[in-house]
């Protein structure tokens, strides 16, 4: 009986592990608590439950991933500048979304989105780069988010987490993914060399910082912290920076102000 019971448990664990590791949504596993509050760090929430990360780049605009979009505006709010999801105080409703017409959820092309807030916030934004700055393979970068800290779990972390990752060469990343998706010049790959240290459920839309510069937005990964499946980021390339500035410029020309 003990042997049978052990076999049942073993098969259950194998099934659970496989089910979790094929997830396409993205958590920081194996990270550490962020100690200092970041005025620009955003939790995008649905019915006050964390869904994605984001970056405040203007007092009225949040940058995130396009696949984080919700159909209903009324259920979405953002929590700004908090280290803890349960203790955050600056919660803002949203006004609308802006997504590139070229966004493709399957290929991850142009997985980038701007969220216009219902009002200006009292927080210091993170300035996006004025021009594209590609990052060399092997560069040490930092990713932050509230995703689950357990690769077998689905619960968001109450405390903001951070993890150091290394940029992966695009050619190598395409080999890892067998060109599905194809890693283009408008994307970037970064991961950790250790197993179960990386992104998973809940960190989509979060920032990738390299040498204290914002360089990318977390798009997705296959599995949770698999060194051979590094996280894919939407690079703040020339195309994406131009698109962001175009949307922001339209805001200043709108009749709302």
TrEMBL record:
<feature type="domain" description="Peptidase S1">
    <location>
        <begin position="28"/>
        <end position="249"/>
    </location>
</feature>
<protein>
    <submittedName>
        <fullName>Granzyme A</fullName>
    </submittedName>
</protein>
<dbReference type="GO" id="GO:0004252">
    <property type="term" value="F:serine-type endopeptidase activity"/>
</dbReference>
<dbReference type="InterPro" id="IPR001254">
    <property type="entry name" value="Trypsin_dom"/>
</dbReference>
<dbReference type="InterPro" id="IPR009003">
    <property type="entry name" value="Peptidase_S1_PA"/>
</dbReference>
<feature type="signal peptide">
    <location>
        <begin position="1"/>
        <end position="23"/>
    </location>
</feature>
<dbReference type="InterPro" id="IPR043504">
    <property type="entry name" value="Peptidase_S1_PA_chymotrypsin"/>
</dbReference>
<comment type="similarity">
    <text>Belongs to the peptidase S1 family. CLIP subfamily.</text>
</comment>
<keyword id="KW-1015">Disulfide bond</keyword>
<dbReference type="Pfam" id="PF00089">
    <property type="entry name" value="Trypsin"/>
</dbReference>
<dbReference type="InterPro" id="IPR001314">
    <property type="entry name" value="Peptidase_S1A"/>
</dbReference>
<dbReference type="InterPro" id="IPR018114">
    <property type="entry name" value="TRYPSIN_HIS"/>
</dbReference>
<keyword id="KW-0732">Signal</keyword>
<dbReference type="GO" id="GO:0051604">
    <property type="term" value="P:protein maturation"/>
</dbReference>
<dbReference type="GO" id="GO:0005615">
    <property type="term" value="C:extracellular space"/>
</dbReference>
<dbReference type="GO" id="GO:0006508">
    <property type="term" value="P:proteolysis"/>
</dbReference>
């Amino acid at each position: 009986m003990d042997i049978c019971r052990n076999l049942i448990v073993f098969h259950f664990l194998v099934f659970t592990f496989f089910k979790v590791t094929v997830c396409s949504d993205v958590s920081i596993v194996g990270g550490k608590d962020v100690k200092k509050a970041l005025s620009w760090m955003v939790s995008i929430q649905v019915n006050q439950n964390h869904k994605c990360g984001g970056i405040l780049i203007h007092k009225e605009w949040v940058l995130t991933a396009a696949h984080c979009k919700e159909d209903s505006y009324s259920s979405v709010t953002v929590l700004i500048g908090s280290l803890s999801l349960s203790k955050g105080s600056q919660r803002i409703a949203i006004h609308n979304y802006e997504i590139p017409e070229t966004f493709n959820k399957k290929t991850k092309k142009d997985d980038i989105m701007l969220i216009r807030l219902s009002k200006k916030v009292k927080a210091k934004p993170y300035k996006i780069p004025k021009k594209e700055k590609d990052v060399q393979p092997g560069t040490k970068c930092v990713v932050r988010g509230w995703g689950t800290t357990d690769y077998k779990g689905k619960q968001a972390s109450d405390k903001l987490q951070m993890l150091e990752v290394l940029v992966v060469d695009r050619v190598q990343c395409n080999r890892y993914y067998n060109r599905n998706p194809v890693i283009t010049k408008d994307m970037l790959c970064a991961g950790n060399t250790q197993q179960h240290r990386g992104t998973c459920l809940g960190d989509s839309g979060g920032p990738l910082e390299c040498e204290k510069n914002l360089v990318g937005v977390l798009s997705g990964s296959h599995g949770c912290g698999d060194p051979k499946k590094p996280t894919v980021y939407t690079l703040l390339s020339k195309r994406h920076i131009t698109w962001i500035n175009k949307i922001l410029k339209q805001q200043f020309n709108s009749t709302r102000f």
